[in-house]
Amino acid sequence: MGFLRKQKLGTRDDKVTNASDLTFRESIVPLCLVTILFFLWGFAYGLLDVLNKHFQVALNISRAKSSGLQAAYFGAYPVASLTFAGYILKRYGYKPTFMTGLCLYGVGALLFWPSGVKRSFGGFCGATFVIGSGLGTLESAANPYLAVCGPPKYADMRLNLAQAVQAVGTVVGPVLASQVFFKNVNDTDLGSVQWVYLGIAIFVFLLAAVFYFAPIPEITDADMERQAQIMAGMKEGQNGQSEEREVKPILHHWSLLWATFAQFCYVGAQVAVASYFVNYVTEVRSGTSNSMGANFLAIAQGCFAIGRFIGSGVMKFILPRKALLIFFSGVVVFQALSVGLRGNIGLSMISLLLFWESICFPTIFTLGIKGLGKHTKTGATFIISSIIGGAVVPPLLGVAADSFNDTGRAMIVPLAFFICGYSYPLAVNFYPRLRQIVDDYSGRMENAQSDDKELGLDAMDDEKPGVTLTEGDSSIEKS
């Protein structure tokens, strides 16, 4: 019963653990456990989009006011990632951060019950803020963990596959909501919302206990600095000593800063489109009910999930930066078309838009943290904090929709933000300095190892040499 033994939480960040050298077989269990977290926040996000419309009816609030849910949910992300989540991740490691995020998620879900009893929209926003804090904590740890746990060459593929599971959660959320929130109940009833979130709370508290006992290898800043040196192509000097790469301050990493800006614009626009998807469909397609609109949202989220699986496969054959450019180009085109078109054609355009959105978030993330070395954890919190865009753009879209009395025309708001975010895929493909950074750390160098060796498939059971990092020094020695 070793699984039930008391577990040690936390590890020194200046210690090389070799966890970043895990082979394919060794990384399966921790990656699968962490991938469950992606489903959870996909599910939460899918429910949120439908709650937006449900609360407009149940609580008799405007479209602009209902966006307070998104503002609370995504506004919590920078609060969490740049404060306590970042501190816990740096000080104690990944496992304690996962557990903290799950517990906050559970507490927020429990708060839905008294909010429903009081029929308080402010209470729901407060509960959603706590949930967002929990999910922001989880994302601060889970995204970089997936990116660094395993061969660096496949970081983009790993994260996109995990995000595909998250996309499945965004499909399940609206389907459940359409059957529970909008079917066979009074439009003003909130009881179903309370019971759903009570079930979520119980599940995530149990999952936090599982994570406590689960063997989750810790990956430290020292591990990431060592990996960055290797992937940068360290050369042996004439004296037999390794030449180290230049370690720059985090604010000198322009790829990270540009990725953070692009992620802010992209997430804000993506969340705005999803939040007002049901409004858009019921307005541009006559005879569409709220329940049918939720089902159409589930179909669109299905396109989103399919896009992530396809995008992950595409990255086996082309560089991630090129895949991002292709998909983001599709985002801009289909969003522009959805602004002016109506009826089934408009519905088709906005549904296909979600297909092209699919790989944008995870690919911007992995490209943005490439080459950060010991700054990887901090850089990850920067990009996760940019998710606050999801709190900024939806209210702007809501105000525009109320002003125009037309959600279709108001879709020009997320279009403007998509265009701003489009600057990053253009930069990493056509600006030589940024292109060199992401290409070097994609493992596509001339001296890169073969695919099988990178995956560990040819030596799954071979003993790997130990590596130590001298405290206070960044020199690397094989033991």
Largest sheet: 2 strands, antiparallel
Radius of gyration: 22 Å
Give the class from helix and strand content and strand pairing.
mainly alpha
Compute the average pLDDT.
80
What are the low-pLDDT stretches, counting only 5+ consecutive residues below 50?
234-242, 444-479
> What's the β-strand tally?
2
Q: What is the 3D form?
A: globular
Instruction: Give the proportion of residues in helices.
Output: over 70%
Q: Going across the major beta sheet, what is the strand order?
A: 1-2
Give the SSE order as H and E letters. HHHHHHHHHHHHHHHHHHHHHHHEE
Q: Give the strand content.
A: under 5%
How many angstroms does the end-to-end distance come to? 33 Å
Number of continuous helical runs: 23
Question: If you had to describe this structure to a student in words, what would you say it looks like?
Answer:
- The chain has 479 residues and is mostly helical.
- It contains 23 helices and two strands.
- Helices cover 70% and strands 1% of the residues.
- A two-stranded antiparallel ribbon has the order 1-2.
- Strand 1 and strand 2 form a beta hairpin.
- Helix 8 packs antiparallel against helix 16 (360-369).
- Mean pLDDT is 80; it is low at 234-242 and 444-479.
Blueprint of the fold:
Elements: H1 24-58, H2 63-66, H3 68-81, H4 84-91, H5 94-110, H6 112-118, H7 121-148, H8 155-180, H9 191-213, H10 221-231, H11 254-275, H12 277-284, H13 290-314, H14 320-340, H15 343-357, H16 360-369, H17 376-385, H18 389-404, H19 407-410, H20 412-421, H21 423-430, H22 432-440, H23 451-455, E1 467-469, E2 476-478
Helix pairs in contact: 1-7, 1-8, 3-7, 3-17, 3-18, 4-5, 4-7, 5-7, 5-9, 6-7, 6-9, 7-8, 7-17, 8-13, 8-16, 11-16, 11-17, 11-18, 11-20, 12-13, 12-15, 13-15, 14-15, 14-16, 14-20, 14-21, 18-20, 21-22
